[in-house]
Write a structure and sequence with these properties.
heterodimer, B: alpha+beta, 5 helices, about 45% helix
């Protein structure tokens, strides 16, 4: 009798342990890996975007489903050493496969300037996703207003810059044109989580563009003030 | 006809006795010992479950909080750019817009934010700072002459549904242009 009771307790304890394990597994399943993957891919994009800067020949080209911008590429040489070089990075919605994916493509500086294709091809950063959208924070110096736009392409050199400030052959010139890169990028990724479609947003402000924009605005204000003082005198 | 059980042989009787001893089974002490060892093992497993669950919940919470902090910081940066300056003061609110609510459909109304912008006592002049005159001038004069100020910005995100409350905060410094430059 005693042994039967003891065996019953042991059996119950084992069943309870298994039930607890299953409950934890259910909980982990409810917090799906999909959201974590989306957040991680956003972090990666943010890291690339925050380190972009205006470079001659490699413009910031932004569309609703694709963006290409100058970036520092980190590669490993044949000797196994980490190397950094200037190039461009593209993020876009890839519809080519069975599922929609967020893909990333790296181009070296020469490939980017010549608008050539990537050496290594694209890498799917996140799949599957439902949709991907980019918006760009823009400043209109004429109207002195800020707005979010769906298209950003300042890759064509301006008339006054075609001749002026041409970099010597073989030298990569950084540009001091804040309007060449947007002040910020809003990334919107929609993904499936069970039977629901969820959307996560991330707004990334590009420090280089913001500080250049503020400096330019300040210079304009100072010029305006000095003109005002001159006219008063 | 007679039926014989066992054997009269004394050596075979001894063997039978030994067999009975081997097939005796477990004693109560042995069973109790086995059960207590099993109980200790099971308690260990259950505690590991509890620890992993709380660690998972904590990491989940922190991940959501950091995401929301970044969202709030993005909104602040946009506001600072469009409105020109960040005004010192305290403000709070709830993450309630449709975009933010996507983070967690069920609990978005429970995520609260609090923002504190504190003007630091460090009015600064660029490059040509006349340190000799610094002592002679009043605070008001110094403030008037300052080119920019430093503000300490603290952003806190908390989920009111979680007990005990766990605040996740972010601190940074923001430059504000003085009135003469803005």
């Amino acid at each position: 009798m005693l042994v039967a009771v003891l065996l019953g307790i042991v059996g119950l304890a084992i069943v309870a342990t298994f039930a607890g394990g299953l409950k934890i597994f259910d909980r982990m399943e409810s917090y799906t890996a999909a959201k974590t993957d989306v957040l991680l891919s956003m972090e990666k994009m943010e890291k690339d975007l925050r380190s972009t800067f205006p470079v001659k020949g490699v413009g910031f080209i932004g569309e609703a489903k694709k963006m290409t911008f100058p970036a520092i590429l980190r590669t490993v040489s044949a000797k196994g050493q980490a190397e950094e070089s200037l190039g461009s990075v593209s993020y876009y919605l890839d519809n080519a496969g069975d599922v929609r994916a967020l893909s990333r493509e790296e181009r070296t500086y020469i490939q980017a300037v010549q608008k050539g294709s990537s050496e290594h091809g694209d890498i799917a950063v996140l799949a599957p996703i439902e949709d991907l959208n980019f918006q760009y924070f823009s400043y209109d110096p004429e109207a002195e207003t800020y707005s979010w736009v769906n298209l950003w392409d300042k890759s064509e050199p301006k008339e006054d810059q075609k001749e002026e400030g041409k970099a010597p052959k073989g030298v990569i010139a950084l540009e001091n044109r804040p309007e060449d890169i947007p002040l910020g990028v809003r990334i919107k990724i929609s993904y499936r989580d069970g039977d629901k479609t969820l959307t996560l947003n991330r707004t990334v402000f590009i420090k280089t563009a913001v500080s250049l924009n503020l400096a330019k605005k300040k210079a304009k204000a100072e010029k305006h003030n000095s003109k005002k003082v001159e006219s008063e005198q | 006809m007679t039926l014989r059980i066992g054997s009269d042989d004394p050596s075979s009787r001894c063997e039978e006795k030994n067999t009975l001893l081997v097939e005796k089974g477990f004693t109560l002490i042995e069973v109790l010992l086995a059960v207590s060892i099993l109980a200790i093992g099971l308690v260990g497993i259950l505690r590991a479950y509890a620890t992993s669950t709380s660690a998972m919940e904590k990491s989940q919470y922190d991940m959501d909080a950091v995401f929301l902090l970044k969202t709030a910081m993005g909104q602040m940066e946009e506001k600072a750019l469009t409105e020109g300056n960040i005004v010192p003061g305290v403000s709070d609110g709830v993450f309630a817009s449709a975009e933010e609510a996507d983070l967690d459909m069920k609990h978005s109304d429970r995520w609260l934010w609090n923002q504190e912008v504190q003007k630091m006592d460090l009015p600064s002049k660029k490059v040509k700072h006349d340190f000799a005159d610094k002592e002679k001038k009043s605070d008001a004069e110094k403030e008037k002459e300052a080119d920019f100020f430093l503000n300490k910005l603290k952003l806190i995100v908390v989920n009111s549904a979680r007990i005990p409350l766990r605040e996740v905060s972010l601190e940074t410094y923001v430059r504000t242009e003085s009135a003469k430059n803005s």
